[in-house]
Every structure is written in C-alpha cells, then in structure tokens.
Amino acid sequence: MLPFISRILLSSFLLITAIHLCPVVLSAAEPAAIFKDTCSVCHGIGGKGDGPSSQGLEPKPADFTDCKRMTKDSDDVLFKIIKSGGSSAGRSTVMPAWGDSLSDSEIRGMVQFIRGLCKK
Asked: How many other CB atoms are there within 10 angstroms of residue 49's CB atom?
C-alpha cells in the first residue's frame, strides 16, 4: 500500500494530466445563460426584442425570432455587434459592446444561440 502522501501526489498528478488532455467542451446551456444574464433585459427571454428595458428604446432591440430579418446579417456582423456594440456596424448606439466581458468563443456561442431563436 502506498504511503498517504504518495497517494495524494499520484491522485494530483492524474487529475492535472486529465485536465490538460481533455478538451474543454462548452455546455449548450452556457450561451443560454449568457443570453439570459446579458441580453434578455432588452431582447427578452425569447429574443423577440420585448425585454423589460426595451420600453422607450429607439430603435427597438432586434427581434431574433424574425427569420426574414435575421437572414440579412452574416455571423460576422452579429459577432461584431456583440463584441463592439451596435454602432460598430451602423446599428443602434444603445446596443453595448460586450467584448470586454465575453470572450470571442463566448460571443461565437452567442451568435449560434441567437441564430437558433429563428425557427423557420
């Protein structure tokens, strides 16, 4: 039987090795949670642009469920809007930039999540 310290060291080594060898996989819930926490206040939980803070905003927040409207923007444009704010793409100056709060990977996840709100 290994001494107690040796077992702890071996367990730590195996844990660290496993962490480095396993790729990080984002759960499907992460973009939904980010959307709820950062976007739903204006865009609404369902993405219709009807969040509690949308009242009085001009222009109104985008309705991500409007498939016809959503096909007009590329993923790159949506990424730019989320990362750098609406004004970076000639859109609403009210749309804040999230690039300081969200990683590029999280923003790409948000773009895909937003695309999923449009059900054809």
From this structure: 19
CATH T-level topology, domain 27-116: Cytochrome Bc1 Complex; Chain D, domain 2 (1.10.760)
Alpha helix segments (H runs only) across the chain? 4-21, 29-34, 40-43, 67-70, 75-84, 104-116
66: nearest Cα among 14, 10, 118, 1: 118
Q: What is the pLDDT of residues 31-54, one digit of tens each?
A: 999 999 999 999 999 999 999 999
Report which DSSP code applies to 1.
-
pTM for the predicted model, two decimal places? 0.74
Look up tokens 């109104």; give the residue. 60
> 9 or 50, which is more confident?
50
Q: What tokens does 73 get?
A: 């923007």
Q: What is the phi-psi region of residue 92: left when phi exceeds 0, alpha when psi lies from -120 to 50, beta otherwise?
A: beta
Computed over its alpha carbons, how large is the radius of gyration of the chain?
20
Give me the residue spans of the domains in the chain.
Answer: 27-116
Residue written as token pair 């007009």: 72
